[in-house]
Amino acid sequence: MPVGFDKGGSVYILASQTAGTLYIGVTSDLVRRISEHKNDLYSGFTKKHKVHRLVYHETFGSIETAIEREKKLKKWCRQWKIALIEKDNPYWEDLSSKLFG
Question: 28 lies in which domain range?
Fold first, then answer.
């Protein structure tokens, strides 16, 4: 197994607002990564478009599985992504407060 590929992983969806701009990402450390997005630590899409609200996430036993899921979700049409979010988070609440305690 390649170095760094022995950890679990998470796929997450961020939104700028309810039904707003979406961003799909993958990470081996969800708390750290969401904190980086919220604090605009890196220039890029989420900083430019103010996409900071965690509206969906899934956790997997391996980072490879998480990466596969991320790739599939990115190919989905917007309507399917919205339905996925609204299935468990109909009000598009920021779920990050549950991560940070």
Answer: 9-95
